[in-house]
Amino acid sequence: MNDEATEKTHTLDDLGKCEFAPNPLAVLGHPVEHSISPAMHNAALDRLRERDTRFRGWAYYRFDVPPDELERALSLFHKHSFMGLNLTVPHKVEAMEWVKGMAPVAKQMGAVNTLVWDEFGYDGFNTDGYGIKRALEVDLAVSLKGADVILIGAGGAARAAAVQCMLDGCSRLRVGNRTVGRMEGLLQVLQEMPEGERVEGFSLDHPPDDLKAEGVLINATSLGLQPGDPKPFDARLLPGGWKVFDMIYNPPMTPLLQEAASRGLAVANGLSMLVHQGARSLEIWSRETVDERAMMTAACHALHLPPRYD
Ligand code: NAP
Questions:
Q1: Which of 32, 95, 224, 233 has its CA 20 to 30 A from that of 208?
Q2: Distance from the CA of 185 to the center of ligand 1, in angstroms?
Q3: Above 80 in pLDDT, residue 309?
Q4: Distance in Å, CA 21 to ligand 1 centroid
Q5: How many helices (H) and strands (E) does the chain have?
Q6: pLDDT mean over 136-158
Q7: Burial code of 188-223, b = ≥16 C-beta within 10 A, e = fewer?
Q8: pLDDT (mean) for 295-307
Q9: Helix 292-302 to helix 271-286 angle, to the nearest 10 degrees?
Q10: H-assigned helices in 110-194
Q11: Are the beta carbons of 195 and 219 closer than 8 angstroms?
């Protein structure tokens, strides 16, 4: 595959000008230069090619698509037979308007991050919830079934996490967010789901103090991305059996994770979530089992982190 083309950040103008692989995939975002999805997916495609020549013509690209260009972009990608698309910030919600069908989970999560081509258009899926669920299992040995969960945030990623918690049968889900109206909107969605009485909101000024001995705290806010950000939650309030998951992966140790780790709590960042949601997307497109380890190795390399697996 042409490495230069898969490493470059393309624009829509390139669709008519550049030559792409016969079976192209892409991530669309704005900004998107930072996305390590091409590195992860092309590493996994290399592994698929080793066992099946069907994947010889597959390659994954990165496109910068401004929000006001999304509708035109999807029509162009469809015309150019891009078989699968990933959507990242800010397209996951807007794209729902332009897909012809949506998986029920994507509807519940109110966002699509994976589109699948057929001759009539794109269908939308959401693999973020799966990514969170697998990351919790793999990195923290947490099963959402029966778990006591505190979720901070009420944006797109929080909604995916919250819906996944409900679908997997968490015992209790408490949600806190800076903007109360946004939190209330999320609570309404969750409380309409089966067993919705397990969900409640809380004020970040008065965090829950009736915690069980074990549980998991999930940070789904962007607090921790920038140096000097305050912590989204005071990890000193958590009993010793709690585990802390931060969706942020760059930096790999946010102040929240540092504080929790210094207290001896098990912690994990969002890299595994990124890898697992990506692997699930590629499984949907390829209908094959995907090598998640190859994706993780490529992700660590792209972020200049030590490899996770030897
Ligand atoms: P989003 O829809 O924009 O939501 C942002 C969330 O962060 C909201 O709850 C927002 O609260 C909160 N927030 C932002 N600035 C804040 C501040 N200064 N103080 C308190 N709260 C603040 O974004 P998203 O897509 O949900 O992403 C949330 C985080 O998850 C980001 O860090 C993103 O990088 C990460 N993420 C990771 C993965 C992964 O694969 N690891 C995937 C998706 C997202 P308000 O409602 O009050 O604004």
A1: 224
A2: 15
A3: no
A4: 34
A5: 11, 13
A6: 97
A7: ebbeeeeeeebbebbeeeebeeebeeebbbbbbbeb
A8: 95
A9: 130
A10: 128-140, 156-167, 180-191
A11: no
Residue from 36, 87, 204, 221 to probe ligand 1 pocket by mutation (most atoms less than 8 Å from CB) = 221
Amino acid occupying residue 12: L
> What atom of ligand 1 comes closest to residue 274's alpha carbon?
40
Structure tokens at 180: 């109360």
Q: Is the confidence at residue 310, as pLDDT, over 60?
A: no
> Distance from the CA of 13 to the center of ligand 1, in angstroms?
31
Dihedral sign for Cα atoms in the order 279, 124, 137, 222: positive
pLDDT of residue 1: 54
User: What is the residue-wise DSSP string for 228-249?
Assistant: TPPPSS-GGGS-TEEEEEES--
- What residues line ligand 1, using a CB cutoff of 6 Å? 89, 128, 131, 153-158, 177-179, 182, 220-223, 225, 247-249, 270, 273-274, 277
Closest residue by Cα to residue 261 from 132, 130, 139 = 139
Report the residue among 112, 151, 222 best suited for mutation to probe ligand 1: largest number of ligand atoms under 8 A from its CB: 222
